[in-house]
Design brief:
The structure is a homodimer. Chain A is mostly helical. Chain A is built from 5 helices and 2 strands; from the N terminus they run αααββαα. The mean pLDDT of chain A is about 90.
Amino acid sequence: MEISLKADYALRAVLHITQATNSRPTINEIARSEKIPREFLAKVLLDLTEAGILKSFQGVSGGYQLARRPAQITMLDVIEAISGPVVLNLCEPNQKLKDGTPSASALMHPFFASLEKQMIVILKKQTFAKFPARSRK
Amino acid sequence: MEISLKADYALRAVLHITQATNSRPTINEIARSEKIPREFLAKVLLDLTEAGILKSFQGVSGGYQLARRPAQITMLDVIEAISGPVVLNLCEPNQKLKDGTPSASALMHPFFASLEKQMIVILKKQTFAKFPARSRK
């Protein structure tokens, strides 16, 4: 039931960029600070750029910045950009037993559909403007 | 973010046994009815028996039955018997950047801890007595 490692890295990268003190952190800076393997991060940043969540800049002052304001980027946006639609369980709503009654998978479908919906609502409400600011503790 | 296939099979097996019209469905019957590969199901049923969720009976009238009443078995019980504690994200709550401020992973930790708790509450409330009964539709 875990979030994929790739989605986790993507969330960390977006949050790092959101809260960066310099305007455009580079891939090396994000990888080093957040302890994300650089090669893996490169793929993640490409996906996020293609999904319109990040903008990538080349050159001396190059690096990454958010493509829109933090309040307009949700956890769900980032997870879906990496892993596609959030799916909890591949229940088959119409599967039947031989006698024509619904299978166990079909009987569980409404429960999982509702749980999925509740999670999506929570992930959609949490924008990147809502995390606490970095500060020394 | 999916539930593991093994946990999904376990949930289906427990629900099948809960609603079986004969008192002790066999592994062959469960596998065939719910379309679960038999070898895989054997491992799942063993885990569920060891976790005290199912009882296994040998012999002519052998098969599986619930070890306690359906209202006392929750979705969480079954998922944890198969996959261990429900963990959404392996955030590191105390991870720090070089400058001593919390990492992105640490900043996200309270959000994921709360989401996890909400999911656990929902999975704990849903007992096997709460699913609709099989019926022809």
